[in-house]
Amino acid sequence: MTEQARILEEMNERSREVFRRVVEGYLATGDPVGSRTLTRDFSEKISAATIRNVMQDLEYLGLLDSPHVSAGRIPTQQGLRMFVDGLLEVRNLDNEDRERIDATVSGKSSDVAGLLDEVGTALSGVTRGASLVLAPKREAPIKHIEFVSLAHDRALAVLVFADGHVENRIFAPPTGQTPSSMREAANFLNALAEGRTITELQTVIRREIDRRRRELDTLASVMVEKGTALWAEGEEGPERLIVRGRANLLGNEGEAAELDRIRELFDDLERKRDIADFLQLTDEGDGVRIFIGSENKLFSLSGSSLVVSPYMNADRKIVGAVGVIGPTRLNYGRIVPIVDYTAQLVGKLISDRS
């Protein structure tokens, strides 16, 4: 049993009721909740002084905080976590929310990127927050790889997949690279790559370079390593993370400090290279997970919360994730079923396409 679960279990009914109402009031309005407000709505006749005493006890336990002298209370990060784990009532998905998601996500996009863009738009529109969608890696088998020299310091890497998809990337080749070494590097890669996915290729390429180094020109060897690094970097790059609805967060925040935190969040998203961390947030199961404040290792400095769920392909393998990010006072009870439904919908659409 966690410390928070133990505290919740040891609370009497009155303390639990006060705590629940403070958190729910804060999540609804974003404002501190005072004792007089609770006195009006409480289920039994209790004086404001009694409620203040209970709130002081909860503050002592680290569950509530008072942002200003003589003001009401707001939940701490620890308090929000205890509420989410022990008292949160998750609603069933509203029919209206379901219909809006279904209407936006048509599934008629010609490619997965277009489909996931629809998903991000739907999530941000329904939740009025910012949505995050992690696209799956391209796992189609490779058909052909080619390097094309553009200038002494620029080259084009061309990757053709068996499903007809073609990707091109410009990069700086190793110094002294010649047309013959580029052809040798491409031939070496094609001998290993055909029929393999990028992930599979990465697992064998370095072993083969070491084993066949004598057969491979030094420049060609460097070219092979640089070329595979280019594709690996692209697979983990920020283009895999689709962000929609930023304006929703900026429009809902009035205080300068809140605006600064949100700008910091989006700066973090723009700079983020290790997007794999986002998928790792979901590695403990296939359900919805909630990360509050500093629990969120991607955006720990932003004071934000993330509600995220993975989605699976036809082989029941986790290949991506969808989520909603916003201030810690998210309406968790409503957001959780929306994220859960959207993740299941994306998994079905991805499976159908495969």
Helices and strands, with pairings:
Blueprint: H1 3-10, H2 13-29, H3 35-41, H4 48-60, E1 64-65, E2 74-75, H5 77-86, H6 95-104, H7 112-127, E3 130-134, E4 142-151, E5 154-161, E6 166-171, H8 179-193, H9 198-211, H10 218-236, E7 241-244, H11 246-252, H12 256-271, H13 276-280, E8 289-292, E9 304-312, E10 318-327, H14 332-353
Keywords: Repressor, Stress response, Transcription, Transcription regulation
Domain Heat-inducible transcription repressor HrcA C-terminal: 115-336
Protein name: Heat-inducible transcription repressor HrcA
Entry summary:
With 354 residues, this protein is of the alpha+beta class. The protein is built from 14 helices and ten strands.
Characterize the structure shown.
- This protein has 354 residues and is α+β, with helices and mostly antiparallel strands.
- The chain folds into 3 domains: 3-86, Arc Repressor Mutant, subunit A (Orthogonal Bundle), CATH 1.10.10.10; 95-129 and 245-353, 2-Layer Sandwich (Beta-Lactamase), CATH 3.30.450.40; 142-236, Heat-inducible transcription repressor hrca homolog, domain 3 (Enolase-like, domain 1).
- Helix content is 51%, strand content 17%.
- The chain has 14 helices and 10 strands.
- It has helices at residues 3-10, 13-29, 35-41, 48-60, 77-86, 95-104, 112-127, 179-193, 198-211, 218-236, 246-252, 256-271, 276-280, 332-353, and strands spanning 64-65, 74-75, 130-134, 142-151, 154-161, 166-171, 241-244, 289-292, 304-312, 318-327.
- α3 packs across α4 (48-60), α7 (112-127) packs antiparallel against α14 (332-353) and α9 runs antiparallel to α10 (218-236).
- The longest helix is centred in the last third of the chain and has 22 residues, at 332-353.
- The chain starts with a helix and ends with a helix.
- Mean pLDDT is 79; it is low at 234-238.
- Residues 115-336 form the Heat-inducible transcription repressor HrcA C-terminal domain.
- This is Heat-inducible transcription repressor HrcA.
